[in-house]
Design a protein that fits this description.
Shape of chain A: globular
CATH topology of chain B: Rossmann fold
Helix content of chain A: over 70%
Strand content of chain B: 15-25%
Structural class of chain A: mainly alpha
Number of helices of chain B: 10
Number of helices of chain A: 24
CATH architecture of chain B: 3-Layer(aba) Sandwich
Distance between the termini of chain B: 32 Å
Radius of gyration of chain B: 19 Å
Order of helices and strands of chain B: EEEHEEHEHHHEHEHEEHHH
Distance between the termini of chain A: 42 Å
Strand content of chain A: under 5%
Oligomer: heterodimer
CATH superfamily of chain B: P-loop containing nucleotide triphosphate hydrolases
């Protein structure tokens, strides 16, 4: 039997059985997943539709013109970069460090067949987010641009052809890195990511610097033209992302011949690159597997542990009370010493989680990139707003707070929720430790809370300072962020303990699973409630002060009530999920 | 059937296997012993084509694993110490997948699958997803899949770990039967009683070097011990571990 067909049948059987196992028992689960996806999809669609409509109706930007073209170029270029890295990393994991490939490579199966099978899985997994977030944008573009019916037929064809390119590049990258720099593969990927981030930050910085302060007020054709010149690199005639953008705009214009040309360009290059990757895998896959298994790994030197035994004694011995991490790295000692009010055992668990997190650049790298981008935007915002009226500053400050809250929600959903599940099959080791099981959750809660507070409070402070917000707003925002960090941490840690997934070792897959999605939805709801009750009244009141209806609003009372309500909500979202999580953990069998 | 010709394997600067020569004919049950980290698993992985020798050649049925890997792997089955099953496949689907992978015709595959289900008594759970299997059930399914295409070489790494006495007995009978039918069985194990009972020849490896190879009688003579395989093994490996001997 043809091996390609065999792998195709294997995938179908795995999908069918997984579907039955996941959804066969209850119709609630698929319903929640579909509903959540629809909510996110609908939200992105509404924003995109409104945005395109605004550009077309208010600003007079044609949908098939250069400005929208740049937006589409940027969308596809950023998607390509994300797909190169995500499919490369997923392929690296599944080709070189999974039990399945060791099993397959011991069978009489061609290396390029295994590569093809894994490639399809990696590209499908890494591009699902585009389906959820990209399709509503493109559909909104088509609707606002009054695209002909065949636009919606061309759309999936362009998408399928396009994902082959970054997927194949990612796969080629993984094969080459493992074959030629097996001992430095993590450093190479880290350097590439750092270089990419630096280039992105520099580019954004230059755009911000180039933007005139009164861009939003007057017609500034020259300034806009200058600003657009910074985007010319996205419009290179050799960039596949540009072919997709051009092709889709041609479809909207009804130029089918030209659209087919760009479609053929995308597909022929995608298939060619995929063929290159497959041929390379026939030569390099087994060789790379061998290289990685025999000396590819760097031996990591870690300081030998000198942690004193964790005890539940009410009077811990002096050595524990002082510092059981005397010879550990300074950051661990700093973290341990910074929280004297937390029980020593909980602090040791917190340090363990921090150490695990710190040694996984894939985890903190993402936080660093997002926080860095946000910080860059905040530090340059004054240039835009110094000529704006107070109410705009007020509104921007609230939007910035919303963005920080979203970052917190992502951090807890993506990194904190999977933490307990990641203890995996070795969880029984923690289960057997001479400590109360609630300490495990308290440790993870403290870790999440401290990390969230450090990032979010810093960002909120910079944002408010740059916007020259009054002291009471700064205080209110700081309190809101603290309540958000506490509640989101409580939800993620609690739900993570109630719905653990000990079979999965990939945190992104745990976060994307049913429990992770539920946690994300709960987090978003909590975020809306807290922002609505604690921060929104102050901003609304400040804006309305200058209007005729200001007299109708009871000043102070609404804000105070909102803060009290927010604090109560925050408390409930810490106590209730943690209590339920502790109960689940106590009843857990290993 | 299995031939290792001056095989050396290096992990960076460390030599895991050094100038190893083995020649194992068809129908022999060959046991491979050694302390932890001696190079057993590395040798087995080279015999399956998962790793390549730094120098030397591994031949299975006359096919060089490096140059004719797929032909060589067509002849063998490997049961690792931590066997792999697709969690979301049933035992029957897994057996079918393996039969298809080795290119068994449809009718022959159905026949063989029915035979191994019977042989390993898989009836009760073969249509359940393997994620629900116990360790013993998994081990039986993996052995069934290893034999479904009637390999000429069966390589088994630590097969008795976690099995109950009944299963161990059944496994020992099975390995003996396979060897009697002409299959070359390469068994790596720390269960010296199992090896003593089953093996036609025994090789002992330490620090990547073959320190002894022969039947039990020959090994006893080499160790100058007239006792069990355990005593022979301990004497030989202890002797080889002494600093003076290691420097030779």
């Amino acid at each position: 039997m043809n091996q390609a067909f065999l792998f195709h049948r294997l995938r179908l059987a795995l999908l069918r059985n997984s579907w039955r196992a996941a959804f066969g028992q209850s119709s609630m689960r698929p319903l929640v997943v579909v509903l959540c996806s629809l909510v996110v999809w609908g939200f992105v669609f509404a924003i995109s539709w409104g945005g395109f409509l605004f550009l077309q109706m208010e600003v007079g930007v044609p949908m098939t013109g250069d400005i929208v073209g740049i937006l589409l170029d940027l969308l596809f270029l950023s998607l390509a970069v994300l797909l190169i890295f995500s499919s490369g990393l997923i392929l690296y994991g599944s080709l070189f460090s999974s039990a399945e490939t060791a099993f397959l490579l011991s069978k009489p199966v061609a290396a390029d067949r295994v590569f093809a099978y894994k490639f399809q899985g990696a590209v499908a997994f890494s591009s699902w987010a585009f389906l959820l977030l990209g399709t509503p944008i493109l559909l909104a573009f088509g609707i606002v641009g009054e695209a002909p019916w065949y636009f919606y037929f061309f759309l999936p064809l362009y998408f399928l052809g396009f994902v082959l390119l970054p997927g194949a590049l990612g796969g080629l990258g993984a094969l080459l890195v493992v074959n030629f720099v097996p001992q430095r593969r993590k450093q190479v990927v880290g350097l590439l990511l750092a270089a990419l981030t630096a280039a992105l930050l520099l580019w954004i910085y230059r755009i911000v610097r180039a933007a005139p302060a009164d861009l939003w007020r007057d017609e500034m054709r020259e300034a806009v033209t200058r600003l657009l010149s910074y985007f010319t690199f996205t419009r290179s005639p050799l960039a596949p992302s540009h072919w997709v953008s051009l092709g889709l705009r041609r479809v909207v214009r009804g130029e089918i011949g030209s659209a087919l040309y760009y479609l053929a360009l995308v597909w022929s290059n995608g298939l060619f690159l995929y063929l290159m990757a497959a041929v390379a895998s026939a030569w390099l896959y087994r060789r790379g597997y061998n290289r990685l298994s025999t000396g590819g790994d760097l031996r990591r030197t870690a300081v030998p542990p000198t942690v004193a035994p964790a005890t539940e004694s009410p009077n811990p011995p002096p050595s524990v009370a002082a510092s059981p991490l005397r010879r550990e790295p300074w950051v661990d000692r700093l973290l341990y010493g910074a929280l004297p009010f937390v029980h020593p055992t909980t602090r040791l668990l917190l340090v363990k989680d921090f150490r695990t997190f710190r040694r996984d650049p894939q985890q903190w790298g993402q936080i660093l990139v997002f926080s860095g981008l946000m910080l860059l935007y905040f530090t340059n915002i004054r240039r835009f707003v110094e000529n704006l009226e107070g109410r705009f500053q007020n509104g921007i400050s609230f939007l910035n707070l919303c963005a920080i809250a979203l970052l917190l929600c992502t951090y807890t959903g993506r990194f904190v929720y999977p933490m307990l599940s990641l203890e995996g099959r070795k969880f029984w080791i923690l289960g057997l430790l001479p400590l109360r099981r609630e300490r495990l959750l308290q440790g993870k809660f403290a870790f999440s809370m401290v990390g969230g507070l450090i990032i979010a409070e810093g960002l909120a402070l910079v944002s408010d300072w740059m916007l020259m917000m009054p002291g009471e707003a700064i205080l209110l925002h700081a309190l809101t962020v603290a309540v958000l960090a506490a509640g989101l941490s409580g939800l993620s840690v609690g739900l993570g303990a109630i719905m653990p997934n000990f079979r999965e070792s990939d945190p992104s897959k745990i976060a994307a699973g049913f429990g992770g999605t539920l946690n994300l939805v709960a987090g978003l709801l909590y975020l809306l409630l807290i922002l609505g009750s604690m921060a929104a009244p102050w901003h609304a009141e400040t804006i309305l002060e200058s209007t005729a209806v200001s007299g109708l609003i009871p000043k102070g009372g609404v804000i105070a009530s909102g803060v009290i309500l927010g604090l109560a909500l925050g408390g409930a979202c810490v106590i209730l999920p943690l209590r339920a999580g502790i109960r689940a953990l106590r009843e857990m069998e290993f | 059937m299995i031939k290792l010709d001056r095989v050396t394997k290096q992990y960076g600067t460390k030599t895991a296997v050094h100038e190893l020569n083995l020649d194992i004919p068809s129908g022999e049950l060959f046991a491979f012993l050694g302390p932890n980290g001696a190079g057993k698993t590395t040798t087995i992985k080279m015999m399956c084509g998962l790793l390549f020798p730094t120098t030397g050649r591994v031949l299975i049925g006359g096919h060089d694993l490096r140059r004719e890997g797929d032909r060589a792997r067509q002849l063998l089955s490997y049961v690792p110490d931590q066997p792999f099953l697709y969690e979301k496949l049933t035992g029957r689907e897994f057996l079918q997948f393996i039969a298809d992978m080795y290119g068994l015709p449809r009718a022959r595959a159905a026949e063989r699958i029915a035979e191994v289900i019977e042989l390993f008594e898989l009836h009760e759970f073969v249509d359940d997803l393997s994620e629900r299997y116990s360790h013993g059930m998994r081990q039986r399914t993996v052995f069934a899949s290893a034999l479904v295409h009637e390999p000429r070489v069966l390589i088994v790494d630590e097969p008795t770990v976690g099995l109950d006495p009944h299963s161990v007995r059944r496994l020992k009978d099975l390995l003996r039967q396979q060897a009697n039918r002409g299959t070359t069985v390469f068994l790596s194990s720390h269960s010296l009683d199992v090896v003593e009972e089953l093996a036609d020849r025994i090789a002992i490896i330490e620090h990547g070097r073959l320190i002894a190879c022969g039947n039990l009688k020959e090994l006893r003579a080499r160790a100058a011990v007239d006792g069990s395989l355990e005593e022979v093994f301990l004497t030989l490996t202890q002797h080889e571990s002494e600093p003076a001997n290691r420097l030779r």
